[in-house]
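Input protein
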Amino acid sequence: MNCLPMSPAIPGVVRLRPHARVVSKQSIWLQIAVGCLSIGFIPTLAARPSLGAERLTISYGIAARSIAINSLETYARTGKIDDDLAAYVQYAGKEQLNLLRQFLLTPIPLNAVAVSQFLYTPIGKRLLENLGEVVQQGSRINGFYAIRASLILAAADPQGLTLLNVLRKFPSRAISIDLVRSLEIAGSFQRLVNQTQQAIALINKQSSLNAGTPPTLNNISVTELPRPGKFSWQKRTIILNDSSRERIFPADIYLPNVSSLRPVIVISHGLGSDRNSFAYLAEYLASYGFVVAVPEHPGSNAQQLQALLGGRAAEVTSPKEFIDRPLDIKYLLDQLSSLSQSDPTYRGRLNLEQVGVVGQSFGGYTALALAGAAIDFKQLEKNCPPSPDVLNVSLLLQCLATDLPQSKYNLSDPRVKAVIAINPVDSSILGQASLSQIKIPVMMVAGSLDTVAPALPEQIQPFTWLRTPNKYLVLINGGTHFSVIGASPNDTVPVPEQVIGPSPALAQRYIRALSVPYFQTYVANEQSYRRYLSADYINALSQEPLPLSLVQSLSLQGSASTATQELTTVSKLESVLLTEQASP
């Protein structure tokens, strides 16, 4: 799910990393204000009318404290702290203050049409509904309409879409932050942070312990696989027309220059991406002798996003895409089979009984569906619509599937022999009962700083649900949802560098270096490559700033002490707030 329409949301969320701490006593007011704003306004985009808010009020029951918007603007633009703001920033560190200025002034490159189009989609409306419970108008009125208005108006303003401009456009004299709901959400977030930290520590420790145990590298050069292979290749584009679904879409075919049958790898892009996003991987796999097919999913690609932001479409994607995406790949394989019989270019060169699939985000779901995981409507009913306390943006996408007719859709394909799911969205659309039915090898790749499809609920936990004997969990420490996505000339919304994260070239190198031995082992049946699928190889390949870990099994256990610690933290926060209110 390359959620580009929500990429402006990520700058605020990306700071909420698994190693982040919940608001401390010393910086309680500033961090709550910044946290609510960054989790709230930035994730939803931003805007508001000439009336303009004058104060930002933080409410706790009948108690309330406020900060003048002018004070925030003066500090953001000049760095000067007036008396009104001084009462709060005295508890904040230099780094926190710098973040506050960054949050207030960072521009988001979207115009009013794009913002409006997104906010009127089902996903946009759901985000506003959740946010309106916390960010309210002055009289404790749900902020749904005020937030939407302020976002659109700020995007239309010549100064552009910034958080500060959103505050200035908010159609109420006061913006009220409901601290009770904020604390509830903060508690949920802290639980996710703590559980994610524990799981990541366990994965890293287990991977480190496994390194050095059989099978060992046995003099394998770790620089060998990251380099291109020996095969030259040619690229062709075919246009597919599935009349039964009224679906026309292109696919790029990368053909190694060999005359023998070669295994086929299909790459499925994420939401808002296109077939160019993983061209780097397609070229690399082709250089190792794989035929690579990269289809464009027309209802969830960059063109769909462009249509949405340009006012030519009314939704980010259709629920039907959960069905159409796997069917796209099944139809592609059928057409390649026909071409291999009728077209001399393809004849005798495609082994369509040995197919691998790699997908990222929405494409990760697509790969798992083809592997044999069926849509779990019972799980969707249980988890949808997502509560504001559930800090998992990908659920907004997954819950769209509740609008599908409940049926046993035939989305798996026996030709698919192994899959790689990168940042997949799967916890509710598939769920435990469904993922446990997969029988073929699966590799899941997670980024520890993924704020779109968080690692713990969307990859780490689902990995433990897999029952296939050949499964791998790869963790890119410091990786984000966008780390492995290559540049595309059709990128609709530029993703800021801080959202992409450090060293995407290294993350993409990892994907290349892992995909070849995995598909050689489980699709081409070249068992000599299995030795690369080890903690030894991962440990040797790993580099800063994105250390790499790999495990083949994992047992997650809860911690009672963690829950107790969270409750103590929330109680301290409440005590501080009441003390602040009682003080003159």
